[in-house]
Hints:
This protein is α/β, with parallel strands linked by helices. It contains seven helices and 16 strands. α5 (217-223) links the parallel β10 and β11 (227-230). α3 crosses α4. It starts with 32 loop residues before the first strand and ends with a strand. The model is unreliable at 1-30 (pLDDT under 50). Bound molecules: NADP nicotinamide-adenine-dinucleotide phosphate. NADP nicotinamide-adenine-dinucleotide phosphate (NAP) binds at residues 72-74, 164-165, 168, 187-188, 190-194, 211, 231, 245-246, 264-265, 277-279, 318, 322-323.
Amino acid sequence: MAHKGAEARGEGVARGARREVAAPGTIRTEEQLVRAFTLDSFESPPRLRDDLPEPTAAEGELLIRVHASSVNPVDAAIAGGVLKEMAEHDFPVTLGRDLAGVVERVGRDVSRYQIGDEVYGFLPAVNPTVHEGSWAELITVPEFNFVAPKPRNLDLAEAGAAPLAGITALAARDVLEPTSDKTILVIGATGGVGSFFVQLASAAGAHVVAPALPEDEGYLRDLGTSEILDRDADLDITVDAILDVVSYAPRDELLNEGGRLASPLGAAGDGPLRFNLVAQPTPENLQRLGELLDDRTLRVHLQRNYLLAHAAEALQALSNVHKQGKLGVEIA
Ligand SMILES: NC(=O)c1ccc[n+]([C@@H]2O[C@H](COP(=O)([O-])OP(=O)(O)OC[C@H]3O[C@@H](n4cnc5c(N)ncnc54)[C@H](OP(=O)(O)O)[C@@H]3O)[C@@H](O)[C@H]2O)c1
């Protein structure tokens, strides 16, 4: 992806675009600076800033004006320096993975998108360093990765909250294969991944069991949960499959013979029926998710929406608010 100061030759310009590209040799004005929420070092908390240079769409890239995103646990992990030992960080690190927005410019040889198209998707946390994020007014992405056309029936706020959790839930459905003769236990059903997965498993006819808090009863029934258990009580059931998005030691002793276990935490263990999920933002996955969102098999529950200026509060909410669905972030 192109970053700071790359040449903009040959790119289209959106009608009504707010900014002009600076001619070579001219000084950038304040108008051409971008607001973003960034982590600038491991020693300081992330902050809102308004001085990042406008990125330029290189050949095969899109410049996207981001309108909406959401908070995912990986955002809090990056903000807290948890990935420090795992991947190189290229500061400033822009936080945020999910995005929905509008193509503002296209680089040369872009064929799939035009200026004004609405897109959605998510950015990988490591690509190949920890650097790019979606909590910025303008970002660049390659046209054939990380984004796809936004589902038509969703508004930008809903579309910006769905991609990462939705694709993880789809990956869980692919491997757990819910059907009407199966009972599936979902640990963490109320959150982002769990809420999407419960809807998918229930649409496939499975009997979905979810440990939760008393206040979650109505929310989880609406998603299609068949049975709600006390989340603080010991589980005394056997099931055909488990999606556990919470535990680093999932309870595989609850599985019937031949049962399947999936974890997005790398905690599923080894073996043919153990699945460690990794969400991939391919256009194919985004299109599959988009169809399920468009036909309302999947609904996005936006529990709260935060302005970009309150992104720090949104990150804190991950640990101090009981989540039902997604926490949205309004970028512009
Ligand atoms: N590998 C991948 O590609 C990938 C992709 C997506 C997500 N993930 C990971 O998957 C995990 C879940 O993501 P998410 O977006 O769904 O997170 P989330 O939105 O925070 O959801 C987690 C949900 O689980 C609930 N919960 C916590 N402890 C529980 C318990 N003991 N029993 C039942 N429910 C419990 C939480 O309730 P409270 O709000 O009360 O805590 C929350 O509603 C995160 O660790 C994330 O990093 C990995």
